[in-house]
Design a protein that fits this description.
The protein has a 7-stranded mixed sheet with strand order 2-3-4-1-5-6-7, sandwiched between helices. It folds into 2 domains: 185 residues; 198 residues, P-loop containing nucleotide triphosphate hydrolases (Rossmann fold, 3-Layer(aba) Sandwich). The longest helix is centred in the C-terminal third of the chain and has 24 residues. Helix 2 packs across helix 10, helix 4 runs parallel beside helix 5 and helix 11 packs across helix 14. The chain is 51% helix and 14% strand. With 391 residues, the protein is α/β, with parallel strands linked by helices. It has 14 helices and 11 strands. It starts with a helix and ends with a helix.
Length: 391
């Protein structure tokens, strides 16, 4: 088998890496833009909330561009997110009415544009739980806004910020839900750890719940964008990444319905490159050429036709059904699917390790990163083979 692989046309490592970077950049560039309106009184912690949920500290990039008398638009180059931050809500009924009209006009303009990148996708209305009360005029505003919003049905989520006391937050949530407002949900959150004393710290919570509720309310076209942006829910990222692996596995199986010679399994490379780029984009991790060279070289080796090349194929050959026989000289749909699944799951595990701080993205360009991936891939191959035999 090693001799067979040595005769396979060599894969240009630099070209494979450059293609992966190109696909990754295209995915980021072509992601649909997520647009969120954030409303509520001054001092409710909107900036802390935004920066705690999304990467790149968007709310620290400046005051944003004023788009109306009471609204500014916050964006950052290369980040597919726009925050429409409303101001002046506490200035009285006239200001409250104007804020409502400006939000509705922004929503209407987005709908009329017929472009998902211009539409308002979600509205967060923030209430400070630490104030221990909900102002009647806020309930009135939300009820009135809900009536005007029925035609466009933009999801409204009430975010109970600064929820130091979970008991008080749950009481406030119950009061709000009892009002039967046109909202998706009320979510208590503490956006950042709060230090009461040197040895007493209230840990942040609720941000992952807010992301889950948003995910349920947003269309599928925005799911990759949300996962790329959010930095609080690892399980949601893994779930979305596993969907990308399933898609790539199905494609790989289709490409090898008729068993193909090992020399021809370069047809799998575009599918696997797209899968790796998609997973990286979902995790929101910036990739460099040196990082990818480290990863790809550990998966491909210096000679091979698929991500499972000569350097690794010989080590894992015994894990593949039919290897060593005549059938083992060709890649079947089952083998292609198993290889692609193992590769994808191992890469998800690698990104998870980066997310958890077990290794850094820079480590992926080193021997430490390469050994980490090899161990993860071997583990996934064994699991795939075991699962295949038990079916």
């Amino acid at each position: 088998m090693a001799d067979l692989l040595s005769n396979i046309p060599g894969l240009d490592l630099n070209k494979a890496v450059e293609e992966c970077i190109r696909v990754f950049n295209d995915k980021i560039k072509n992601m649909n833009r997520l647009n969120i309106v954030v409303a509520g009184k001054t001092g409710v912690g909107k900036s802390t909330l935004i920066n705690s949920i999304f990467r790149e500290n968007l709310a620290e990039t400046g005051m944003g561009k004023p788009v109306t008398a009471h609204m500014r638009k916050i964006t950052k180059e290369g980040v597919p997110l726009s925050i429409y931050d409303t101001r002046g809500f506490e200035l009285g009924k006239d200001a409250q009415k104007q804020v409502k009209e400006e939000i509705l006009e922004t929503v209407k303009a987005g709908v009329e544009s017929k472009d998902i990148n211009n539409a308002v996708h979600c509205i967060w209305y923030c209430i400070n739980t630490a104030s221990n009360r909900i102002e009647p005029e806020e309930i009135e505003w939300l009820r009135d806004f809900g009536k005007s919003n029925r035609q466009t049905s933009v999801p409204v989520i009430i975010v109970l910020t600064q929820s130091f006391s979970k008991k008080k937050a749950e009481e406030m949530k119950r009061i709000i839900l009892d009002e039967n407002l046109d909202i998706v949900q009320a979510v208590p959150v503490l956006a950042a750890d709060y230090e009461i004393d040197d040895d007493i710290i209230i840990k942040s919570y609720g941000l992952d719940t807010l992301v889950k509720i948003m995910s349920e309310a947003l269309p599928d076209e925005l799911q990759d964008t949300l996962q790329n942006l959010q930095i609080v829910d690892l399980e949601a990222k893994k779930y979305r990444a596993q969907a990308a692996v399933a898609t790539a596995t199905a494609a790989a199986i289709g490409e090898c319905i008729i068993p193909i010679p090992l020399a021809d399994c370069a047809v799998l490379i575009p599918t696997q490159v797209a899968m790796i780029a998609t997973i990286t984009a979902i995790f929101g991790i910036n990739i460099s050429k040196s990082m990818l060279i480290g990863f790809v070289s550990s998966a491909i080796g210096t000679s091979g036709t698929t991500f499972i090349g000569k350097a690794m194929f010989s080590n894992f050959l015994k894990l593949i059904p039919g290897a060593g026989s005549v059938a083992g000289t060709a890649v079947s749909s089952a083998t292609a699917g198993m290889l692609t699944t193992a590769l994808g799951e191992a890469y998800i595990a690698l990104m998870t390790a980066v997310w958890n701080g077990e290794i850094s993205s820079d480590d992926l360009a080193t021997e430490k990163g390469r050994e980490k991936f090899k161990a993860l891939f071997k583990k996934r191959m064994k699991l795939s083979n075991k699962n295949g035999k038990t079916k």
